Amino acid sequence: MTEGDERLLMLIDDEPAQSRLICALAAREGWRCIVVPDAEAAFNTLRSREGQTIAAVLLDQWVPGDEACALIADLKRIRPLTPILMLTASASPLLAVEAMRAGATDYLIKPIAPERLLQALRSATTRESPKDELQPLSEKLSGNPDFESLIGNAPSFRNALAQAAKAARGQGHVLVQGESGTGKELVLRAMHTTSPRAKNPLRVVAVGGVPLNSMESLLFGHEQNAFPGAFDRQVGALQVLDNATLLLDEIDRLDVSIQERLADVLESGIVRPVGAKHGFRIDVRLFCSSNFDLTELAASGQFSQRLLAQIGHVTINLPPLRERPGDIPALTRHFLKRIGEQPGLRQHSITDSALSLLTAYDWPGNVRQLQTVLFRAAVFCDAESLTTESFPQLSEMLGAVAQMDDQRQQGFGVLLYRDDGNLRPLEEIEADVIRLAIVHYSGRMTEVARRLGIGRSTLYRKLTTLGIDNVA
Predict the structure, then answer these.
(1) For 213-227, how does the pLDDT look when each residue is reduced to its tens digit (9 = 90+)?
(2) What's the CATH number for 7-134?
(3) pTM higher than 0.70, yes or no?
(4) Where are the domains of the chain?
(5) What share of the chain is helix, strand, coil (3-state, %, to 5)?
(6) Could you tell me the CA-to-CA distances from 333 to 39, 337, 351 in Å, in that order?
(7) CATH code for the domain defined by 321-409
(8) Which has the closest alpha carbon to 16: 31, 36, 32?
(9) Cβ-based neighbour number of residue 291 at 10 Å
(10) Is 282 helix (H, G, I), strand (E, B) or coil?
């Protein structure tokens, strides 16, 4: 299918309001929707002349899981090459597993962000992209992460975690930057669990999933009748989270006017709801993430310099997975263990050749993409171990994988040797050991010093000398 072809989406849904919303969203990228209310109408449409041009099917799971999965299987038998996406309000991993086994291409949880829906449609119908079958297929595995659960020993990654562990014990705002899928939200959640505000709420706002006209009220609140449609008073997140923490995911997607207003609030410590005569003094800690370098965006006028000055005092940069290939074996085993704990799935091991295949790929979707690929492979694997055959698309793209060098096979520990076979300088090894200790003891510097057998003042001197002390 070329870009110029009309793309036809069949939506199986009996809720008119939701159908209108989905069709309007899909129309943004040139999709035309056919809405049918039930399975019988769906089968009749697929068999019609117009139905032969349907490029994707979106099914709202309004019936019990077993029946929805049976419908997916029936649709797949009629149109085996047509992508089928399921939209559901259930976050059950078991339902995701059953839907995938029945033939679902993707599994979307309501309420769904507009970009997530469009991404799923693009992924399902774009066959030339290597990311085709490697897009997010299920939502992230649940859990409250801490620093010990964040896997990886690449120096750049450990340095970022050391920064985060130390910054977590302060009160300042924090910005975490990195490509999509590198684990920014997980790091920020781990920071919250070890922060002084850990007993108070953490609220996550996905900026890209909130309509522009709703963001101002969500953050700052509004008074009754402040604008047309403001029938009730709304207390904003900044006021609700006094003495707590607000995580703004993809803060770069905030409208510039709201960025400036947020900068005012952070500078003054006072938030004034829309239409209010008086403001409220607040003490909110802001955790922010961005897929882009905000310094570059601010320099080009696409992000508020004032807001960056407020949130960027502590900036942590997470490396992409392609820059830490030695972490892939450990990440793989960690994810397989967690996936095996989900209902309907079993524990799997993985062969060395399959690990080599995973390590050879550059993972444009980073750690999240690796997890999704392993999830898909585990769903369809009946054997005890995952093999190269468990990852057919990767095998097709990469072909035979050459033997990895010793450093790329390294999964744990501090690296002692350079690529040329010579020992690394002592100060580099010492810096890695200190970073590991900071993360392991969650930024408790007195405990770090005690465990390393040095004085606290000596530890801080080493942080400065080795270039680790870059957290204010």
Answers:
(1) 789 999 999 888 888
(2) 3.40.50.2300
(3) no
(4) 7-134, 170-317, 321-409
(5) 50, 15, 40
(6) 40, 6, 11
(7) 1.10.8.60
(8) 36
(9) 16
(10) coil
